[in-house]
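Reminder to self: tokens first, then the designed residues, so the page reads top to bottom the way the pipeline ran.
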């Protein structure tokens, strides 16, 4: 195949620049997965599954028979908690892709997005073919400057950001953003992927108390819920708009019921078992305190803990990671800008203090 020559050169260039990626299998002591509450291995009685038919595949898109009573029940439960309609998607990526690409049907609309928003958000924006502007990360002054300029030119302003950012573990300034929303009357979309199930009195996310003021909310089931899937929460009109326009929803075989069932059961379990979150936050505090004693500066109060590698040689760091007793990830460009490469630590409820001590020992080996 003539294309093979191009592919070989392309891949060799990635290898040369230490950007070549490979699939990674999870090892015993892992700090790379986002199972924040350690629920992916929770045992559920088999008799629960025996009550449902077609558990392992929906065999169709939701508009062609792939919807189910179970999905409707879980959607209604989310609707009750959020006071918004809920639409279940296959993944958080497909949810953001589906929502944002659907904006192509709205004339005279512009999108404003945090510069460090997730790739799924940017991919959806690109598919929408709408004009978009990036505001500096968590910079409400820059956001307002853009809003002032664009308010005169466009009828509809659509602002999207994350609650907890997936690479930095920091939190969006929601109060300031909502003040701007009152002033400029834009549609606000918040991705709560890394906060859903962990934060809030009802485990709805770090901005649970502001949910009624947020127009569109994305949540995922593959992190704190230890399952698979996602949902979008919005007004009835907006959800119906997505059902009729979102290609990632309309044209995908819908998520199997087994994933919805596990998500539902684990979410109920989280809400009735506050000790799960308590243990996670104890681990976050212990990690931060131990990190300080080791001479590092903790940068996040969330389960996502970034540690920047500075000017260290990426190839050398990668080689050291392979020799370590724990599993951590080195985040490189284009996921993050060049010069902002970092180790990304994902803390979980089921990590022990001994696990964290071993992690710190390996970080000292890696960076000092």
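Designed residues (368 positions):
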């Amino acid at each position: 195949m003539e294309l093979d020559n191009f592919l070989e050169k392309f891949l060799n260039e990635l290898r040369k620049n230490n950007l070549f990626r490979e699939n990674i299998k999870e090892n015993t002591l892992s700090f790379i997965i986002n199972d924040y509450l350690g629920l992916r291995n929770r045992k559920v009685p088999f008799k629960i599954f025996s009550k449902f038919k077609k558990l392992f595949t929906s065999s169709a898109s939701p508009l062609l028979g792939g919807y189910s009573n179970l999905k409707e029940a879980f959607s209604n439960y989310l609707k009750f908690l959020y006071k918004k309609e809920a639409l279940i998607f296959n993944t958080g990526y497909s949810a953001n892709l589906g929502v944002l690409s659907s904006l192509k049907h709205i004339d005279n609309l512009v999108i404003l997005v945090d510069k460090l928003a997730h790739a799924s958000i940017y991919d959806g924006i690109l598919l929408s073919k709408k004009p978009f502007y990036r505001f500096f990360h968590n910079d409400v002054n820059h956001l307002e400057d853009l809003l002032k300029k664009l308010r005169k030119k466009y009828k509809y302003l659509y602002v999207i950001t994350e609650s907890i950012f997936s690479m930095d573990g920091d939190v969006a300034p929601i109060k300031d953003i909502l003040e701007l929303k009152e002033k400029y009357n834009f549609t606000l979309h918040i991705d709560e992927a890394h906060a859903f199930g962990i934060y809030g009195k009802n485990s709805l996310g770090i901005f649970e108390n502001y949910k009624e003021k947020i127009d569109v909310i994305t949540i995922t089931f593959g992190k704190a819920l230890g399952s698979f899937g996602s949902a979008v929460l919005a007004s009835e009109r907006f959800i119906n708009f997505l059902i009729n326009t979102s290609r990632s929803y309309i044209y995908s075989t819908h998520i199997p019921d087994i994933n919805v069932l596990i998500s539902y059961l684990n979410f109920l379990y989280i809400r009735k078992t506050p000790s799960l979150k308590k243990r996670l936050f104890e681990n976050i505090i212990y990690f931060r305190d131990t990190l300080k004693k080791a001479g590092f500066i903790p940068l996040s109060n969330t389960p996502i803990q970034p540690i920047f590698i500075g000017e260290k040689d990426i190839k050398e760091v990668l080689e050291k990671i392979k020799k370590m007793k724990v599993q951590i990830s080195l985040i490189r460009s284009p996921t993050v800008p060049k010069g902002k490469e970092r180790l990304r630590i994902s803390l979980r409820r089921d990590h022990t203090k001994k696990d964290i001590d071993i992690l710190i020992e390996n970080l000292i080996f890696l960076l000092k």
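DSSP finds 13 helices and ten strands in the chain.
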